[in-house]
Structures are given as structure tokens and as C-alpha cells.
Amino acid sequence: MQMKALQRASTWSHNWFGFWQTEPENDPMLPVVKDFIDPSWNPDDKDRIIAYLTNAPIVVAAATDSEDCLLCSSDQLTSCFQSDGSWLWPEDLAHYVACHGVVLPNRLVFPIRLYHDCLLSNHFHLLAHGEMVADPSS
Question: Which of 41, 48, 75, 107 has the least CB density, counted as fewest CB within 10 Å?
Fold first, then answer.
């Protein structure tokens, strides 16, 4: 399963991540969370990646009850969604990465690693204030 998780993460083509189903069901767009778990995925900058996911602005919030994590009994808020202007993820994605070894797509991790400090200070400030966000790679 570990190689499968790394392979799936490296070929993820969408700009959203962390919306799961527990078993393969009717929606082929939603991945099965267990297919992205690799407990050995522990990059040196994992804490910085988790901080990035956690500190991104909430861009959508809905009035729903909180739900349990699909993998443990932790109560997770799934009614809020975060974005860095390029990617969208549910608020609990950092929990899945930190506690369950979910492997993030390379296309999401690469800019976090390259522009982490700049993005946290400037990009998120601009996004939170509704201003146009420039591509950090330009």
C-alpha cells in the first residue's frame, strides 16, 4: 500500500485534495483515504507542511455538525475549507497528514517547500483580504 500511496500522490492531477470516501463507492472522483496512507512518509519539513495547511485562510464555511475522522475517533471539523489561492482542502487535512500518514500530492508540496515563508506571510494575508494573489513562481 505504501508504494501505491506515493504513486497516487505523485500523479494527482486535481487542485483539490483531502475530500475522501472510506471505501470505493459511486463517486470515482473521490479517493479512498486508505489509498493515500504511507506511515513511512515523514519528510524533514513535515511540520512546516502541516503548519502551512493549518494556517491557510478558511475560504468556505458551512453550518454543519462536526464529524469524526474517517480513520480514528478524533472529532474533526469538516465544514470549513482552506485554500492558498491555488489549492483547496478541508480543514482536517492537516490531521490526516499528522496523525495518519496521508501522503500529499507532489504538486501541492513543491510550492510549500519552495515558498513556505513568503506564502505564509504575504500570500495568505492577500488572500484573506480578498486581494489578487500573484503566482509566487513568477
Answer: 75
